[in-house]
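Risk register update: the risk of archive-format incompatibility is retired. Evidence:
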Amino acid sequence: MDQDAHLQLGRCPHCNVARPNLGRRTTADTWSSDQSNRRYWVVYGCETCGGCILTVSPWDPSGLRPITNIWPSSEQVDNSVPQRARQFLQQAISSIHAPAGATMLAASSVDAMLKEIGLKDGSLYKRIREAQAQHLITAEMAAWAHEVRLEANDQRHADEEADLPNEADARKSVEFVQALAQFLFVLPSRVARGRSESK
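Archived output:
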């Protein structure tokens, strides 16, 4: 991918809109004090949310500028998270702009994670309590999981007395599920990989 007039991304890393219109806003050349490490920077702006994306490429007099880094990058769920839970979580991240849907997907991801670690009986409520009782998650994580579960229940059952979640509410739910994924799958996977590499 090169630094063209428009940046081609599948989703905006800020608002997650699909195929965002990301136009070039400004550019800059930089180099180190000894005149080495010359780089070309471009800032792109999302026409939907107004968020900016920064890209960098090595400076090349021919004008070829393959992008080497993008900030912020789009959120991707680690491959160590089991497939079903990972898909629910990735879809929740991608649908933040539709908060009720993102909230329900976040709860589905929690449910899939708990089933993956062997807690398959009963309701999500029971599985969360069982995970806490078995010390698989902390009391604080269980309380947060229950918040996500209740938010999703309000949306699933179209509770007339419950407010619709906003984007901040959906982000909070997704944030918890990302933390749970790290705790249950990503960190243990990294530890196991690190230990095997050190042998």
